[in-house]
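User: My notes are a mess, but here's the protein and S-adenosylmethionine's SMILES. Can you give me a structure?
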Amino acid sequence: MRPRRSDRRTEPRPVGPPGFAARRAAAELVEGVLRRNRRLSEQAGEDGPLARLGPADRARAQALAATTLRHLPAIDRVLDAFLRRRPAGRALTALRLAAAEMLVDGVAPHAAADAAVTLTRGHPKTRHLAPLVNAVSRRLATEGPARWAEIPPRRLPPWLEAPVIAAWGEAAADTIAQVQGGRPPLDITPKNPEAAEILAERLGGDLLPTGSLRLPGRVQVSALPGYDEGEWWVQDAAAALPARMLGIRPGEPVLDLCAAPGGKTLQLAAAGGLVTALDISAPRLERLRENLARTGLDAEIVVADALAWTPEQPWGAILIDAPCSATGTIRRHPDLPHLRNAGDIEPLVALQARLLDRAWEWLRPGGRLVYAVCSLIPAEGEEQVAAFLRRTPGAQRLRPDIALPEGWLDSEGALRTRPDFWAETGGVDGFHAALIGKA
Ligand SMILES: C[S@@+](CC[C@H](N)C(=O)[O-])C[C@H]1O[C@@H](n2cnc3c(N)ncnc32)[C@H](O)[C@@H]1O
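Assistant: No problem, the inputs look usable. Here's the predicted complex:
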């Protein structure tokens, strides 16, 4: 099955090249990731680099920071050819942004070069490096494209490549790496699935076989029709599947464990579920609250550590969207490869097992649970579920009752998506989700 293109299209407003304020914010975002180990999403708040920007400039700054981080190894390779040694601080960031703009985004070289010089001059510690940045930017403009064309195909970070090749082979790993190099499309979940076709026409998007809508990635989300009215929310097409696997009926109570920022909470509530949404992070739950307010949906919100919290009654339906390596979402979160390493996986696998065991105690006999992770690493997904089933009497796999593209359910009846699925139209996030019933 392939995405369907709607006939009447009203193209969404594209996000153009950034102005100076957006470029400076992009520089600060990139430095926040590379120097202070801060996720891009953590820097989006009121105290972050985006705080004083309007929605269009925020989108421009985020897009430029993401492009720069996505292509950083290749960008540095090109820059190194023009430098005896890398300059300090803001000067290096300015050159990296200029390279991303010239070589990836196709921005006019003089505009990207001028911006790099202005950024360097505007920072007290790098003012003296402006002539160097100017000279390197000019070489980037003239010689950069040829050097860029010679860069070998991108690969996954070594700590991720090994488990991906072991699970799905080299060809899949290569395609995943290529897909992660592109700007991802914007996927949208309609609040009312019945209205998906009409919404696709209004937004000028494609209605995907799984019910999500897909638009080109470089748009300002908050300017799209229906955003203010809460008719839809942003959610990767694969991320929209685990909540649907639970098959919530109107009026049915459901526990959404690890819920923030709430894409799946919104789905469960839109299906008519009486949702209790629990998460350990108060700031992330604030975003969930905003999402509920915008969409006019309802859920009870609990700020708590799931390993310490105890519910008042057993549940018939639980969704655990467990904390994980998020390696399935790198195309949407290009900061991740710069922040994660192999050592992160083992503690996450242990935490996931504890969350699963604990939630299982809260499930009543006859109840069902979906365990989901946005990970490409089987230890967090396939192997985690297999180990749980081995140690848990009365736990059995159930087959989800939803229509899926061929091959998206594995031989055990669990969902497995990878970024190389639908690669030609931008891929999907890598998810593993299993539906488990209690006898
Ligand atoms: C994959 S994200 C959830 C995404 C969310 N379900 C959605 O669809 O938007 C995992 C979440 O687990 C939360 N988390 C991590 N450890 C937790 C714990 N011990 N108890 C509750 N939540 C936890 C994190 O704060 C994070 O929001």
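The longest strand covers residues 363-373.
User: Great, I'll file this with my notes.
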